[in-house]
Each structure stands twice: as structure tokens, then as C-alpha cells.
Amino acid sequence: MGAPCTEAIQTQKSGQCKRKQIEYGDKDGLARGKLGKIGRARTPITKIGSVHLRRGLFMPAMTARVFNPLLKTFADRLLENGKKPKQIIIAVMRKLLHQIYGILKSGQPYNPDKRGFAGS
């Protein structure tokens, strides 16, 4: 224990990484929190959840924002919609987490041309 989730993914030993940590990452620290007063215009990014998961996904999300074609188009679309840079990185972190989970669950290597679920 104590090893960051990304280290477990890099070594492809998913036993080191808690399955729930990947499965519910977007609900546990990467999703927006509803803290503060009623009627507040903005919702801050929550600090609840795994610090290791957030720290482990931040730099990979920054890199994927530039080099992963699917995440690049996603981030560019968010930028066009007026999202702030930190919101874009958090959204890319969440999408990257979903890609990682899909790769680990299916056992197949990453395919940049694959979009969505296969028909079979």
C-alpha cells in the first residue's frame, strides 16, 4: 500500500491499486463539490478524496492534454466553451481515469482510434 495509483498502472500490477479508487475516482475527489453557501455562483473543486490519486493524475493529465488526440480535442472543446484552465485539467484527469479503468478492465492495449464501446 502507499504506492500511487499511477505507479501501479505503469507496472501493470492493478493489485497495488484499489479497484474502488479507480472505479469511483470521479466521485471521490475529481468531481466538483457542493460546498459553501446557498446561491453561490461557482462550485469549488472538492478536496475530498484520495490525495494520491489527484497527485498521481495531475501531470499525466497535463501531458495527455497535449499529446493524446482524444483528450486534446476534448480539452479544446472545453476551452472554446469558456472553461477555466484548472477546470479543463480536472476534466481531463477524470477522462484519463476512465480510459485507464477501461484499459485495465478489458486487458487490451491502448488504442487511440477506439471511441466508446465495441459492439461485441
Describe the protein in words.
There is one protein chain. By secondary structure, the protein is mostly helical. The chain has one domain (5-33, 42-106). Helix content is 52%, strand content 0%. It is built from 5 helices and no strands. The protein has helices at 5-10, 19-23, 51-67, 69-80, 85-106. Helix 3 crosses helix 4 (69-80), helix 3 crosses helix 5 and helix 4 (69-80) packs antiparallel against helix 5. The longest helix is centred in the C-terminal third of the chain and has 22 residues, at 85-106. The radius of gyration is 15 Å and the shape is globular.
Number of domains: 1
Instruction: Estimate percent helicity.
Output: 40-55%
Class derived from helix and strand content: mainly alpha
Give the end-to-end Cα distance, rounded to a whole number of Å.
Answer: 36 Å
Shape: globular
User: What string gives the helices and strands in order?
Assistant: HHHHH
Number of strands: 0
Rg to the nearest angstrom? Answer: 15 Å
Question: Which ranges are low-confidence, i.e. pLDDT below 50, for 5 or more consecutive residues?
Answer: 11-15, 32-36
Largest sheet: none
Strand content: under 5%
Give the mean pLDDT: 74
Work out the helix count.
5
